[in-house]
Structures are given as structure tokens and as C-alpha cells.
Amino acid sequence: MSARRPAALLRDGVARLAGAGLPTPRADARLLLAHAARMDPSGLATTRELDEPVAARYERLLVRRAAGEPVQHLTGVAWFRTIRVLVGPGVFIPRPETETVVQFALRRLVALRPGTGPTPLVVDLCTGSGVIAAAIAEECPGEPRIHAVESSAEALVWARRNLEPRGVRVVHADMAEALHELDGRVDLVVANPPYLPAAAAGALPADVLDHDPPEALFSGEDGLDALRVLVGAAARLLRPGGWLVAEHDETQDGSAPRLLAGSGAFGTIEDHPDLTGRPRFVSAVRASGARRPEVEE
Ligand SMILES: C[S@@+](CC[C@H](N)C(=O)[O-])C[C@H]1O[C@@H](n2cnc3c(N)ncnc32)[C@H](O)[C@@H]1O
User: Fold this and answer.
1) By three-state DSSP, how is residue 21 classified?
2) Which among 128, 109, 125, 98 is positioned nearest to 247, based on CA atoms?
3) What architecture is domain 82-286?
4) Which of 49, 50, 52, 72 could form a disulfide with 78 if both were Cys (CB 3.0 to 4.6 A apart)?
5) Is 213 in the active site?
């Protein structure tokens, strides 16, 4: 096979992936071709021809993608806001809706510490690949001190790869018992916990069920088990006036804020949509002098 033009390879790939019923064939084909060519996707536009080994690598990637492997597992990276994180089997693939959660958290951090005060103290609970902590480390002015907590040993490997080079401390623990040394001192707790009801498994696409770890997806009968634990952990860690920002399922815009309110530990509880307008995360401020959280576990 001789050299091929990128546009022709992309056209073939898009047709193949669309034929396999994949929802984003154009974006996937572009990422896979760039990966096969060992270049940044933006480089494809200025490349005239790609040689035969590149076309062969691309072909193998297309076959695997058409069979349902996530594009992020094939390329080994996930793009999120302004950053790239390493991902693979055993860790949750970051989703674009979480970008809104980070946007809000960053705004809170800037508002918490205007000027030249001490650097903010941030905890990312349920860190998975570490994407939330990594984005905050890269984007927050003032070099926040960030701790990231993950209970799965498999996910922890990815968190360490993504976070330790960015200066984030990674802790292998259940969030219920993590970081007691920071109790009452943290400025912001942010989290994307597992939040799907167990019964949702039947409605999930096969590629999600096959490739995202179950402990990253499901959280008891109503999907709120992890949030119950998270609320208790955040109430313990946050200083009065500190912020909790937690992602939830689009059906939990009533139940998640109610859960926070019921704990008695938070005020200023608000729910927020993502960029598609779907309810996506709840924020709250740790109340001072609040009664100890009474969250069922
Ligand atoms: C939905 S994933 C989120 C990963 C990442 N923060 C993101 O937004 O892409 C949830 C993560 O929480 C972890 N997890 C679940 N229960 C936990 C707990 N009790 N303590 C710490 N981590 C937990 C799971 O292993 C999984 O990696």
C-alpha cells in the first residue's frame, strides 16, 4: 500500500465507525488517526501524506473501536478542559459534563482567596484518574495545595501517574476515613462520586458496562450511597465557610440537595446544570456551628 492522504483515511474511518453505530465517528476517527501517526490531532490538517505503517496502525485501531473499545483506551489519553490525562483499563474515563463542576470549583477558589492570602487547601474525593485535581492544579491561580483520595487500587495507579507530576498528593483510602489530619481546615471539597442506581445497569450502553469499573458507576439502590458518605466526609474536612461541590445524576437535582440539607452541616445549597442544561451538580457552604452531620450510611 502506498502513502495515503489524511483526508481519505479519515473519510474511510468515519464511514466505518458510523456503520458500526458509534455516536461520534468523526471525532473518534480523527483521534485514532492522529494516534496512529503519533502526532497531535491538530497536526493532521497540515500533513499531506501518511505512510503505510501509519495506515496499518489506524486500521487496527478502527477495528477495535468498531468492536466497542473506548477511544480513550485505544489512545491511552482523555482530554478534559485544558489538560490531557492518562487512562486505561481499571479507571473511569472522564466525561465532559464534569468540566462544568471544575469550572464552578475554580470560581469558588478564586473567590475564596483573593489577593495574596494563604494558598487554598483542596480535596478531590473519588479522584479516579485524578482529572478534577489535575485540572485544578493546572488552572487555579495561586498554586493550591491539593489532596486526592481514591479507594480502588486499580484506579489509584492512574491517579498517581496523572497527579504526582502535578504536585498533587494522592491518598489510597475510603473517603469516609481519609485525611483526618485536615479535619476542619479544607477550603474546598470537590467530587464526582459514583451515582447511578444499581437498576440503571440494564439501560447502560455495552461499552460503558464493559470498560468503566462498576465501583465508579453504581451507588446502591437510589444511586446516593456514595453521596451520603461524601457529605459526612466533607462536613468533617471543611472549615466553616468552605465549599462542597459534588456531581450527581441528572435525576438527583431534588434528592442530592435534600441530602445535604438533611445533614444540618451546610447552608447556601444550590443545584446547577451542565452545559447541556441538565441538572448536574450541587454546591453548598459548610455552616459554622452546625450540628454534626446526621447522614445515614
Ligand atoms: C465516577 S468516578 C470519578 C472519577 C473522576 N473524579 C472523574 O470525574 O472522572 C468515581 C470514583 O470514585 C471512586 N470511589 C468510589 N467510592 C469511593 C470511596 N468510598 N472512597 C474513595 N473513592 C471512591 C471509584 O473507585 C471511582 O474511581
Assistant:
1) coil
2) 98
3) 3-Layer(aba) Sandwich (3.40)
4) 72
5) no
